[in-house]
């Protein structure tokens, strides 16, 4: 799968991103603390429901999140650039995600805050 972390979302309401300026798709930036690194971000992200590591590169992670009942797979892409964590969460299938990806980004934000990885 291609790294899409820096791309804005498409036009279907099944994606959120820190890189998208449109209100329906935008999520607030994640500002990293000095102690944050990719391994600690990965540990936090893997505590999300249904999460498993799919790909890891130098400053990039792709986490696959599988829904419990219907087994839908969403891609959570994370990239560290300077003191920012770029976050993009998108459903692989379907038109609407009923807010699941925004909820996942909010859950990730809370996990990272609890671990003192973001401000």
Briefly, what is this?
19% of the residues lie in helices and 29% in strands. A hairpin with a 2-residue loop joins strand 5 and strand 6 (84-91).
How would you explain this protein's 3D organization?
The chain has 119 residues and is an alpha+beta fold. It has a domain of 83 residues: 2-Layer Sandwich (TATA-Binding Protein), CATH 3.30.310. It is built from two helices and six strands. Strands 1, 2, 3, 4, 5 and 6 form a six-stranded antiparallel β-sheet that branches. A hairpin with a 6-residue loop joins strand 4 and strand 5. It is globular. The N and C termini lie far apart (31 Å). The mean pLDDT is 96. This is DUF1499 domain-containing protein. InterPro entries: DUF1499.
Give the SSE map.
Elements: E1 15-17, E2 30-31, H1 38-45, E3 51-56, E4 60-66, E5 73-81, E6 84-91, H2 100-114
Antiparallel strand pairs: 1-6, 2-6, 3-4, 4-5, 5-6
- What overall form do the CA principal axes indicate? globular
What CATH architecture of the domain at 32-114 do you see? 2-Layer Sandwich
Name the structural class. Answer: alpha+beta
Proportion of strand residues: 25-35%
Protein name: DUF1499 domain-containing protein
InterPro entries: DUF1499 (IPR010865)
Organism: Vibrio zhanjiangensis
Keywords, please?
119 residues; alpha+beta; TATA-Binding Protein; 6 strands; 19% helix; globular
């Amino acid at each position: 799968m291609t790294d899409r972390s820096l791309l804005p979302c498409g036009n279907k309401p099944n994606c959120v991103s820190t890189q998208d300026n449109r209100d329906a798709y935008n999520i607030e930036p994640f500002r990293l603390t000095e102690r944050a690194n990719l391994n600690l971000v990965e540990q936090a992200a893997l505590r999300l429901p249904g999460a498993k590591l799919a790909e890891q590169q130098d400053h990039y992670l792709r986490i696959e999140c599988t829904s419990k009942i219907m087994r839908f797979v969403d891609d959570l892409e994370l990239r560290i650039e300077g003191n920012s964590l770029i976050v993009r969460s998108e459903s692989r299938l379907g038109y609407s995600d009923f807010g699941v990806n925004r909820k996942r980004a909010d859950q990730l934000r809370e996990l990272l805050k609890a671990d003192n990885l973001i401000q």
